Structure formats: C-alpha cells, structure tokens
Amino acid sequence: METTDWRLVKKRTADSDGAVYVSADGTRYRRTGGPALRSEAAFQQMAATMGYPVPQVLEHGETSVGTFFVDEESLGGQSLHEKALESLDGGRDLSDQVVDQLAEVSSRLLAAQAAHPVDGGPDALRRWVEQAGWTDNVFTENPDLDTRRARAALARATDELTGTHMVWGHLDYGLPNVMPAGVIDWQHHGVVPLGYDVALALEVIPFKGGAKGYAATPQQREWYLSVLDAAARATGRLRVSPHQGAFLLVKSLFFLALMRPTDPARGDKHQKWQYRRHLFLKGLDQYERTGNIDTALFPTLHSFASGQDAADRP
User: Residue 58 and residue 38: Cα distance in Å, rounded?
Assistant: First the structure.
C-alpha cells in the first residue's frame, strides 16, 4: 500500500492485522483488514443504497501485500463521544448540542431502517437475542447466570417484541460510532428489531462505569426518546420507547460478553467482570418487576467497588 499520503490513526481492534489511516487532506479514511472487513464493506455499500447514513465506499481492493483495504469518505473529524468530552465544562452533563446531533443522525438511521424491513423468518427474534447479546457465550462463561429466571425474562422480551419489524442494524450503536454526518464501524451488523440500535444510544453510557466523563440528564434521555418516537410514527411504525426494557436486557448481556471471567488476582479486570454481572442482575430485577430498566439506578464502577451499592437496592 502506498502510504505517503496517509497517516496512521490507530490499529483496528476488530482485526488484528488491520489499521485505520486518514488522508493528508482529511477527506477520506482507509481501513485495512481481512475477510471481516470485506463483509463489512459489502454491507456498507448495500446500506448506502437504502439511505442509511453510512460513509460512501470510494474504493476497495487489495494492497500489494494482499491485505484488503476500503477507502471511504470522512463523516467528520470527531465522533460525538469525542465532542462530548471536549464540551465538558467542569461538570458531567452531556452537551445539549451533542444530544441534538445524536437525535438527528439517529432519526435518519431509524427512518432508513423502517423503510427497508427484513424478512428474518419465525426465529428472527431468537437469533437477534443470541447475536446481539452473545447469549450462549455469556451463559457458558457464567453458568450461574443461566437460570430459569434469566431465560424466562429473555422469553418475555422476545414475546414483547413479536410483530416488531426486523431491520439491518449496527449492534454497537453509541456516541463513539456516531459522527456528525452518520454512523461508522458496521463490523457487527445483523438483523435487529426496529429501534434496538437508536433507542439505547444514551442508555449504554452507564455500562461504562461512570468513567467516560459525561452522563445524560433525565431531561435529555426523555427528549431523545420522544424524538425517536416521533420519527418512528412519521414512518408509520409504532413508537420505540415502550421496548426499551427488552432492548436493555439484551444489551446488558452484550456488555457482559465484553468482559470474560478472570482470575481474582487480575484486579481491575476481575472487578469489571463482576461489575458487569451486577448490572445484568440489576437490570433483570428491574425488568421482572416493571417491564423496564432504568440505567440511572445503576451504580458507578467506583461505588460498586467500594461496596456502596446494596444487593437489594432497586
């Protein structure tokens, strides 16, 4: 690959042999990798034809050493996560401007998804639970969580979503992957219930443990969901907000899947694994009792580590 006009941005965590480069003028990005990147690029090209707010693929092929590459347009120099951190002014409240930008991109994505439903067949919701939550992996690695109670809650979630349109989704949607002009990093794409991606964009922040530097206010969370509900109704679909609890139950498994069981001697990693287990059980308890999950009631990693979050606290 000719690198004289490209600057290395970072290695790609999704591909051990891949990297991300930016052009000298900042107008395009080049990603390198293997078969997974090929699949992602093909999906991205399809999504663009459906009006999804994704980067346009400008060129793709193989480098001189046989590595696959994709050149795509830049959707902005900073993600909304980076903008959120930059806009903090001594506090932790998320910038209203960032929430506005998120709502605009999320509404565009939701409208494109609603316009192109996918016939996933009778098992589509079950497959979504497995793919989105890495459910089999989580229960294999945490067998004590694979209980009748947990399985019943997941069954309730899928029953609740019966009849919801299935669409192609991102599966890792959040501020780090949202740019001012669209959405990047589609390597985890799959078929999801309409609303699963966008409804949780602010709700996933507490899963990071309170160390990301910002938090959405109750007013921002309520307003954001109202914008999404209006966008869904404008397409002739049902509101997405009533399904937030079912969505979050599955998402809590996804975050636990990111933290594999560790030796207690490994300190921070073991603590984060225990923390994510705790959040799953907190969410499970809330969903059983109310049909919803309020992430504002989740403890921070610091309060959990210091024993401030009682086991019976709602």
Answer: 14
Give 102-170 as a DSSP string.
Answer: HHHHHHHHHHHHHHS-----TTHHHHHHHHHHTHHHHHHH-GGG--HHHHHHHHHHHHHTTTPPEEEE-
**Residue-wise pLDDT tens digits, 243-281:** 999 999 999 999 999 888 876 777 788 899 999 999 999
The residue to which tokens 């690029």 are assigned = 41
Q: What gap in Å lies between CA 80 and CA 97, rounded to an integer?
A: 10
Return the residue matching tokens 């609603």: 114
**64 burial class (0-12, 13-18, 19+ CB within 10 angstroms)?**
exposed
Taking the C-alpha atoms of residue 286 and residue 275, their distance in angstroms, rounded to an integer, is: 17
DSSP assigned state of 173: -
The whole model's pTM is what?
0.91
Q: Which residues have a Cβ under 8 Å from the Cβ of 211 and sit 6 or more positions away? A: 300, 301
